[in-house]
């Protein structure tokens, strides 16, 4: 068995694609076939011919549905591939939707018909499927699929093959690894990732965060929910609106689930049932400045209607008019005289005591999310073939966090908050009650096309898009889509909060937002003077919104500690009479600093009893094959030696002799022809 790393090798983070050649059976196959994204020369790499004949590839094993792992599969079919794609049901469904949604951004790499050609073989629907259980994929070739907890349906894949001598080789392809573990499933939706079983000959491991570890606060469910709940409460009680840019696949559903937990909670993370008739910030501003404007008087009168007659009498004679600092200002102001029987403490008590029911509107504005919701409810409710009492992917803490009484109740809640998109496609909204609050999936009517080459100033007057007290909208990096229109209306308002929940590429509008938020927090100047992309521009002086970054709470990639745990944890140690095997680790899918950081951490790791023995660590490179049976790189054939001047002269002399003989032959033929005539 030979392997070569086509994509996500060398210094690349995206474009995952690994090429296998099982020469004994004359079978070639791929693990993943992804798009290069956001990297130098990405378009050129995506458009280049594959470094193999797609018609020679028998099948593809797909770890998950992110575009940098599946985005070139339609191109593979376009160029001659006719085989199957082995993956989980969730991965197949998400990939179809993501690839269709990406047609407008594919730049002609593939068409709708190419996507429809994909033949998904969903392994988790097979009768012989079980997590970490080997199933036959081809002759003398087997694969085991283990939960990686990166996104719903994502897996690591362990391959096993029979060699000529009847021994077995094995390699683990990590795919992308998530954060949740069995002991700490702190993220919302997924059960913990699974470490490889036994000691494979090889492991290919991603290294996106290979050189860093997260603060423990970001790996704590209670800390995240408390921070999110505090933000929602602060916004609700101060009449501020929250806008959340989020990817349609996984991130939106995670945030939704957290918010639903907060809406349903009966403990400290839950929301108050009432809100004051005035925003808290207005009440406190009045107290701090020592006066209140005329419109607050109306609120005081409303509040006094609930007070006793005696208190009403005291208040009627308590307030006096006071002059504004600016003589041109014509609005009235009021304050308390020094001998008043009431004070600003009474002012706070009165207005804090006058409340209305708190009813929030959580609006999801993303057509792609609407299509994906039903997949989440179906797959999070999917039971294991070999153990029907347990779900395949669902977080084991879900019932507790939803305050549900049974797993069946969790099933029903998931079906409610993640509804089937069938039947909703033609609806403008889908309203779902969650206690006093509403979850709304919004499907706007088609908008008229416009000239996207001309940026639209934020100052341009446009009808504001539908929004809620909390609005979640795509795309995750704010590169386009509905989120751009929301930002045009949110950024210029001091009553807005922009909540970032994931990595933002520095070259995107989202990246600018993330940088601006950090600069505003630290007081350092940003590297730009306006927020801008092809559809959007706003000078920084006009940005009034608060920008808060929760990205570290929701990151889908595990850090260095998690990668080391995946590499060293061995659930099947060698017995007392068995020879201990060792594993060679290939590091891919990360920038050079991340790869080197992980390599140093592996080589410097103090091995504990029962942990996997690591033989050596290699950095994946794309310029040559590796023989997995011979345990060696296969050096490329040397190029033919350039022709020396002596060799060239000898060749010319031989050519001259040939020319002389040809002339003599032609002369003889002419004489023969004359004699014949």
Description:
By secondary structure, the protein is an alpha/beta fold. A hairpin with a 2-residue loop joins strand 7 (135-138) and strand 8 (141-147). It is elongated, with a radius of gyration of 33 Å. The mean pLDDT is 90. InterPro entries: Beta_Casp, MBL, Metallo-B-lactamas, RibonucZ/Hydroxyglut_hydro. Its EC number is 3.-.-.-. Residues 350-513 form the Beta-Casp domain.
Structural class label: alpha/beta
Span of the ends, CA to CA = 70 Å
User: Architecture of the largest domain, according to CATH?
Assistant: 4-Layer Sandwich
CATH superfamily membership of the largest domain:
Ribonuclease Z/Hydroxyacylglutathione hydrolase-like
Strand content: 15-25%
Please count the beta strands (DSSP E, at least 2 residues each): 29
- Helical proportion, percent range: 25-40%
Mean pLDDT: 90
Number of domains: 4
The radius of gyration is 33 Å
Major beta sheet summary: 8 strands, mixed
Number of helical regions: 20
Low-confidence stretches: none
Q: Provide the CATH top-level class of the largest domain.
A: Alpha Beta
Strand arrangement, major sheet: 6-5-4-3-2-1-28-29
What does the secondary structure layout of this molecule look like, with pairings?
Blueprint (H helix, E strand, L loop, with lengths): L1 E6 L9 E6 L4 E7 L8 H6 L9 E5 L5 H4 L2 H6 L5 E4 L1 H13 L10 H5 L2 E4 L12 E4 L2 E7 L7 E8 L5 E6 L28 E5 L14 H17 L3 E5 L5 H14 L9 E3 L3 H10 L2 E2 H11 L4 H8 L3 E3 L10 E3 L8 H10 L1 E3 L3 E5 L1 H14 L17 H5 L4 H11 L11 E6 L2 E6 L27 E4 L8 H9 L5 E5 L8 H14 L7 E4 L2 E4 L6 E4 L1 H4 L5 H9 L14 E6 L3 H12 L10 E6 L5 E3 L4 E3 L10 H32 L1
Parallel strand pairs: 3-4, 4-5, 5-6, 10-11, 11-26, 12-21, 12-22, 18-20, 18-21, 22-25, 26-27
Antiparallel strand pairs: 1-2, 1-28, 2-3, 7-8, 8-9, 9-10, 13-17, 14-16, 15-16, 19-20, 23-24, 28-29
């Amino acid at each position: 068995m030979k392997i070569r790393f086509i994509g996500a090798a060398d210094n690349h983070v995206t474009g995952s694609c690994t090429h296998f050649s099982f020469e004994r059976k004359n079978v070639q196959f791929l693990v993943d076939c992804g798009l290069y994204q956001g990297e130098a020369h990405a378009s050129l790499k995506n458009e280049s011919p594959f470094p193999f004949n797609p018609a020679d590839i028998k099948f593809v094993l797909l770890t998950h549905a992110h575009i940098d792992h599946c985005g070139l599969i339609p191109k593979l079919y376009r160029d001659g591939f006719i085989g199957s794609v082995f993956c989980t049901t969730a991965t197949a469904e998400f990939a179809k939707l993501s690839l269709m949604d990406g047609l407008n951004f594919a730049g002609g790499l593939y068409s709708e018909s190419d996507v429809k050609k994909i033949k998904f073989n969903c392994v988790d629907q097979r009768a012989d499927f079980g997590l970490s259980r080997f199933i036959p994929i081809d002759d003398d070739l087997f694969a085991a699929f283990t939960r990686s907890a990166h996104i719903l349906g994502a897996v690591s894949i362990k391959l096993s093959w029979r060699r000529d001598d009847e021994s077995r080789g094995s390699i683990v392809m990590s795919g992308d690894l998530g954060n949740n573990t069995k002991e700490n499933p702190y993220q919302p939706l997924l059960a913990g990732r699974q470490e490889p079983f036994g000691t494979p000959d090889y492991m290919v491991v991603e290294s996106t965060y290979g050189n860093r570890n997260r603060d423990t606060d970001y790996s704590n469910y209670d800390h995240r929910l408390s921070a999110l709940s505090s933000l929602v409460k602060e916004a609700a009680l101060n009449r501020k609106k929250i806008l959340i840019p989020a990817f349609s696949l996984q991130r939106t559903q995670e945030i939704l689930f957290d918010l639903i937990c907060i809406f349903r909670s009966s403990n400290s993370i839950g929301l108050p049932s009432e809100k004051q008739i005035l925003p808290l910030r207005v009440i406190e501003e009045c107290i701090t400045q020592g006066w209140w404007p005329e419109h607050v008087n109306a609120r005081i009168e409303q509040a006094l209607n609930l007070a006793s007659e005696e208190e009403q009498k005291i208040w009627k004679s308590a307030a006096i008019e006071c002059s504004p600092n600016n003589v041109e200002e014509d609005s009235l102001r009021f304050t308390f005289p020094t001998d008043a029987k009431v004070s600003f403490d009474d002012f706070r008590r009165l207005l804090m005591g006058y409340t209305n029911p708190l009813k929030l509107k959580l609006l999801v504005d993303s057509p792609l999310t609407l299509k994906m919701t039903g997949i989440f409810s179906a797959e999070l409710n999917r039971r294991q073939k070999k153990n029907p009492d347990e779900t395949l992917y669902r977080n084991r803490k879900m019932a507790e966090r939803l305050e549900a009484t049974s797993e069946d109740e969790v099933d029903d809640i998931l079906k409610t908050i993640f509804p089937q998109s069938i039947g909703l496609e033609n609806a403008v909204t889908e309203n779902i009650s969650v206690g006093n609050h509403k979850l709304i999936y919004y499907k706007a009517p088609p908008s008229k096309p416009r000239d996207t080459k001309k940026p639209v100033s934020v100052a341009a007057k446009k009808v504001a898009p539908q929004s809620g007290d909390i609005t979640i909208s795509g795309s995750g990096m704010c590169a386009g889509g509905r989120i751009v229109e929301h930002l045009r209306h949110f950024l210029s308002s001091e009553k807005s909060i922009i909540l970032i929940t994931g990595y933002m590429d520095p070259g995107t509008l989202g990246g600018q937002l993330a940088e601006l938020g950090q600069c505003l927090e630290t007081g350092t100047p940003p590297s730009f003077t306006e927020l801008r992309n092809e559809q959007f521009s706003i000078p920084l002086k006009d940005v009034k919104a608060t920008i808060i970054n929760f990205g570290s709470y929701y990151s889908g990639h595990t850090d260095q500690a998690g990668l080391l745990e995946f590499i060293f944890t061995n659930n099947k140690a060698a017995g007392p009479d068995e020879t201990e095997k060792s594993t060679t680790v290939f590091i891919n899918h990360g920038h050079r600093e991340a790869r080197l950081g992980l390599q140093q951490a592996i080589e410097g790791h103090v091995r504990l009893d029962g942990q996997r023995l690591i033989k050596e660590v290699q950095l994946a490179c794309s310029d040559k094959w590796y023989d997995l049976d011979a345990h060696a790189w296969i050096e490329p054939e040397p190029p033919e030696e350039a022709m020396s001047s002596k060799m060239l002269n000898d060749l010319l002399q031989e050519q001259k002799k040939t020319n002389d003989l040809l002339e003599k032959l032609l002369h003889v033929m002419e004489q023969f022809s004359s004699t014949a005539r």
